[in-house]
Design brief:
Two copies of one chain form a homodimer. Chain A is of the alpha+beta class and about 120 residues long. Chain A has a domain at about 20-90: Orthogonal Bundle (Arc Repressor Mutant, subunit A). Helices cover about 60% and strands about 15% of the residues of chain A. Chain A contains six helices and three strands; from the N terminus they run ααβααββαα. The first copy, chain A, has a three-stranded antiparallel β-sheet. In chain A, a hairpin with a 2-residue loop joins β2 and β3. In chain A, about 20% of the residues are buried. The interface of A and B includes residues 20, 38, 39 and 89 of A. Chain A binds a DNA duplex (30 and 30 nucleotides) through α3 and α4.
Chain lengths: ~120, ~120
DNA sequence: TCAACATTTAGCTAATTGGTTAAATGTCTT
DNA sequence: AAGACATTTAACCAATTAGCTAAATGTTGA
C-alpha cells in the first residue's frame, strides 16, 4: 500500500497505541507468554482452559491482541487457531524502547507543540 | 532489602504490572519521550506547559509514572524536578520482551496433545 | 437433518480511568 | 507577615474496560 509520510507516521502511532493498550492487561500479557512457551500456536479453547475467567472474556482479550496485530487467526474447521506474531511484538515495542537508547538532539522535539 | 525468592518474584510481577499500565496511555508515553529528548530532567511546570490538558491531569500522569519507577522526583525549592529513569524502563520492558527472543524448554511440550 | 461441539457476539453491570475545577500545601520575595 | 508562585490533592463526572450469562454462528459427524 502506498501512503504519504504523514499517513505512515499516523499508522505507526496507531499501531503503538494498540500494542501498548493490549499489553496493559496482565491476562493479555499472560496469554502471549503462554502462547510463546507452547511454540506460538494454540487454539482458542486451549488458551481459554488455562485461565480462570470465562471463555467470552478470554475471547475478547484475544480479539484485542488480534486488533493490535500481536496474534493472527487461522480458522481450521471448528477450531480457531491463534498464532503469536512475536516479530510484530518485538518490532513495535523494541523500536519504541529504542528511543531511550539513542542520544537525541534537543532540537528534534524541542519545537514540537503538544496538542493532545 | 532481603526477601525470599517468591517475594522477589511477586515484586517483579508487580513492577511489570505498574510499568505496562503506566505505558498504556499515550500522554504518559509522550511525557517520557519529551523528557528523554530534553536530557531526562524537567520540572513539573515545563512538562505540564507542553500538554493541552490541565495541570492536575499531567500531575496525576506523573505520579503514575513515579509509582511505576519510570521517573523519580527531586524537590528543589518550590519546583519539583522529575528525573527520567530510562534504565528502569529499559530493564523492565526489555527483560519482558526478551522472553519472546529466547527458545524456551517448554516449547518442547508443543508435541504433546493438549486436550484431554 | 439433528445434535454436539468450538467459539464468538450481544447485552448487561461493576470497577477503573482520565478529565475537569476548586482547595490545599509548601516556598520564595519583599 | 503577605502575597505570588509551583505544584499537588480533593471531589466529582463521563467514558472506557473487564467481567459475567445467555444467545448466536458456524462445523462436524451420525
Amino acid at each position: 500500500m502506498l501512503m504519504s509520510d504523514s499517513s505512515k507516521g499516523l499508522n505507526e502511532l496507531h499501531e503503538i497505541e494498540q500494542v501498548f493498550k493490549a499489553l496493559a492487561h496482565a491476562s493479555r500479557r499472560h496469554i502471549l507468554i503462554v502462547m510463546n512457551a507452547r511454540g506460538g500456536n494454540m487454539t482458542a479453547g486451549a488458551i481459554a482452559r488455562r485461565f480462570s475467567c470465562s471463555w467470552p472474556t478470554t475471547s475478547r482479550h484475544l480479539r484485542m491482541l488480534a486488533n493490535a496485530g500481536l496474534v493472527t487467526i487461522q480458522k481450521q474447521g471448528r477450531e480457531w487457531v491463534y498464532v503469536l506474531e512475536s516479530k510484530t511484538l518485538q518490532r513495535v515495542v523494541g523500536e519504541w524502547l529504542n528511543w531511550f537508547n539513542v542520544e537525541h538532539p534537543l532540537s528534534d522535539l524541542d519545537s514540537i507543540k503538544e496538542t493532545e
